[in-house]
Amino acid sequence: MGFKILLINGPNLNLLGRREPGIYGSDTLAEIEARLQEYAASRGAELQTFQSNHEGEIIDAIHEAAGWADGLLMNPGAYSHYSHAIRDAVAGVKLPTVEVHLSNIHAREEFRHQLAIAPVCKGIVVGFGWRSYLLGLKGLLDVLAEAAERT
Questions:
Q1: What pLDDT is stored for residue 104 in this prediction?
Q2: How far is CA 44 from each of CA 6, 66, 148, rounded to the nearest angstrom?
Q3: How far apart are CA 48 and CA 5, in angstroms?
Q4: pLDDT given for residue 110 in this prediction
Q5: What is the pLDDT of residue 108?
Q6: Close Cβ partners of 23 (under 8 Å, ≥ 6 residues apart)
Q7: Does residue 90 contact residue 97 with C-beta atoms inside 8 Å?
Q8: Of the residues 39, 63, 81, 101, which is catalytic?
Q9: What per-residue confidence (pLDDT) applies to 135?
Q10: What is the third-level CATH fold of 4-150?
Q11: Where in the chain are the domains?
Q12: Is 79 among the residues known to form the active site?
């Protein structure tokens, strides 16, 4: 089944590859997106990508996705820890959502342990570098396929 997924990347993820590579790796966002596009295509899915450093633009993208997407894959960046507005947008559109993080946020600074958006997500994947995205996408597509089989 040809599921449509929106991949949302939040603030500073446009700097991947040069921003703290010891924490976030040396892969650029474009490289990660290309791998995910390839995987999505291998599963017969369509992946659209979006990145913004602005909370309102992310919320607008989530709202717009409700009109066409089957699910969301999201790395909200620092917004993960305090954006109740993005949390409310995810809850409001009722699209299955998987949150991903490159680093193991639970092994980092205390403020990163608080997650505002995760409670309204289907699941979260953290700590596997760029593979967190791949594992999140696989999980999301599997959940969507299982739901489609039940209907």
A1: 82
A2: 15, 20, 14
A3: 6
A4: 75
A5: 67
A6: 102, 103
A7: yes
A8: 101
A9: 98
A10: Rossmann fold (3.40.50)
A11: 4-150
A12: no
Q: How many residues does the chain have?
A: 151
Upper half-sphere CA count for residue 5 (Cβ side, 13 Å): 36
Contact 79/121 with Cβ under 8 angstroms? no
Nearest alpha-carbon partner for 81 in 119, 133, 28, 32: 119
Name every residue whose Cβ is closer than 8 Å to that of residue 134 and which is 6 or more positions away in sequence.
35, 36, 39
Alpha-carbon span 100 to 108, nearest angstrom: 15
pLDDT digits (tens, 9 = 90+) for 87-121: 999 999 999 999 999 988 876 667 666 899 999 99
Alpha carbon 51 to its chain centroid, in Å, reads: 10
Is 81 within 8 Å of 116 (Cβ atoms)? yes
Does residue 98 contact residue 120 with C-beta atoms inside 8 Å?
A: no
Residues of the chain with confidence (pLDDT) below 50? none
Angstrom CA distances, 23 to 107, 123, 140, stand at: 11, 22, 25
> Can you give the pTM of this predicted structure?
0.93
